[in-house]
Design a protein that fits this description.
single chain, 484 residues, alpha/beta, Rossmann fold, Helicase, Ruva Protein, domain 3, 3 domains, five-stranded parallel beta sheet, 19 helices
Length: 484
């Protein structure tokens, strides 16, 4: 087993000093930095002392991984686990017990443990689990640092990402927000155009005014004019009262017109007048209303192509294309996927009152190898689903939707059959790790396709049952209910 690139600091907690020293010696031999504690009180004192030097940071002096026995003299190990997670939600905890039961394992995982071991501890198994835990701790620390830097720098709340193109967008938003300039956002559905619009409003001179959002594509053409400009009583059948439109509702604030590409030619002409003169008449009225409103627009189609086809007014296009912000699809910035995933994990753990430590590297790799056609919105749905359905304290590949796992497997198979030598499902990891990630996905997809019948799965994969059993155990798939 290779030694870690950066020495992860590990705290070992056990009643017996001999056990502490034994585990410490093994891990030091693998290149880790270790400390020991023989009680829960001593463990928490050591953690607080490390964090006190420079609080709220993930410094080298902090403990990234804690290995604790369940049976401690002064406190139950599960109570210590709770306290550890309350003290620092980023710490990765491994539980060890001499009396391993399914109940205690499940309880520790639900409380946020990364994994568990039973005595006597096998050195090879200890090394593998600690290596994965250390990798998870480094990922959490890196993402926390990036999120903190971006929040301090940009203050854009739920707009998360460190891809160079996203950083340029943050700069552009900061520059354009204080002005009254019309902004046109382009990009596929789900890339975050609405979030950018809200960020512009929050950083604008009218941030104390209303922010009104309307999707032009979701409203029938016959009703869109009334929605935007309002109507007077009797203007059409069913107009029993006067109605204020969205433009008037956004007066002295911001209006965000999404899917502007779906507006009809007649509506485009009316919008051109509002943008030029800030005036309109409600449907059925001759009274001209003036508004002072900031206008932001978005499209999920290239407007220049629609102009060339005669489906979008050229004069309107030039009027709204003053400052353009093009949001890249998530598949083109896969480095942001771990950051976004952790952001949504925190959001939905709070929303659903769940305690989940994070994601396995295999889960993140699977997301990065998936094209995510729904972009950030689809990723958010995947993470919320995993938070709700996960039965462990960490989210793994088995928590992905079945269709996504099968798509991954099919995509790899198609590429291999086509003789592709392009590393389209490689993400820069060492070859051994990359192969294991893909093999785990394939085995999981095959098991699911065969309703977890191991004989059928082994036959279909062309391996014997013993080999399949070993791989299931190696990849931790035997811990999932379906594999029982």
């Amino acid at each position: 087993m290779k030694k870690p690139e950066d020495p992860t600091r590990i705290l070992i907690v056990a009643n017996d000093p001999i056990v502490c020293d034994s585990l410490s010696n093994v891990l030091r031999g693998l290149g880790y930095s270790t400390a020991t504690a023989i009680s829960a009180t001593e463990a928490m004192d050591a953690i607080r002392e490390a964090e006190q030097i420079q609080p709220n940071t993930r410094r080298a002096e902090s403990f990234q991984v804690v290995i604790t026995d369940i049976n401690l003299a002064d406190q139950n190990g599960l109570d210590l686990l709770r306290e550890l997670r309350d003290q620092d939600e980023n710490v990765v905890v491994i539980v060890v017990t001499a009396y391993g039961t399914i109940q205690s394992a499940v309880k520790s995982i639900k409380l946020g443990a990364f994994d568990y071991l039973t005595y006597p501890v096998v050195e090879e198994e200890l090394g593998l689990i600690v290596e994965k835990a250390a990798r998870q701790a480094r990922l959490i620390a890196r993402n926390s640092m990036l999120e903190r830097e971006l929040n301090e720098r940009c203050g854009f709340g739920s707009i998360v990402g460190q891809d160079p193109r996203m950083v340029k967008i943050y700069d552009l938003v900061e520059a354009v927000a204080p002005t009254n300039t019309t902004v046109l956002m382009t990009g596929e559905s789900g890339t975050g155009k609405s979030l950018i619009a809200k960020a512009i409003h929050r950083h604008s001179a009218v941030n104390d005014g209303p922010f009104v959002e309307i999707s032009c594509g979701s409203i029938p053409e016959t009703l869109l004019e009334s929605e935007l400009f309002g109507h007077v009583k009797g203007a059409f059948t069913g107009a029993h009262t006067n109605k204020m439109g969205r433009f008037l509702a956004a007066d002295h604030g911001t209006i965000f017109l999404d899917e502007i590409n779906s507006a009809s030619p007649g509506m485009q002409l009316k919008l051109l007048r509002v943008l030029q003169e800030r005036q309109f008449e409600p449907v059925g009225s001759t009274e001209t209303i003036e508004v002072n409103v900031r206008v932001l627009l978005a499209t999920n189609e290239a407007l220049e192509h629609l102009v060339a086809e005669g489906r979008f007014r050229q004069d309107l296009y030039y009027r709204i294309n003053v400052v353009a912000i093009d949001l890249p699809p998530l598949r083109e910035r896969i480095g942001d996927i771990p950051i976004l995933a952790n952001f949504f994990l925190e959001k939905y753990c709070k929303a659903h009152d769940r305690q989940i430590a994070g994601f396995t590297p295999e889960f993140i790799a699977a997301l990065q190898h998936y094209e995510l056609p729904g972009n950030v919105r689809e990723l958010e749905n995947i993470i919320e689903r995993a938070v709700v359905l996960s039965r462990r304290g960490i989210i793994d590949v088995a928590d992905l939707p079945t269709n996504l796992i099968n798509k991954q497997s099919l995509r790899m198979t198609d590429q291999l059959n086509a003789g592709s030598n392009s590393p389209t499902f490689w993400n820069g990891e060492p070859l051994g790790e990359a192969i294991e990630v893909q093999e785990r996905l394939i085995i999981l997809a095959a098991l699911d396709a065969n309703d977890w019948n191991r004989q059928q799965t082994s036959d279909q994969l062309g391996i014997n049952r013993t080999t399949l059993y070993k791989k299931i155990k190696h990849y931790g798939l035997d811990r999932w209910p379906a594999a029982g």
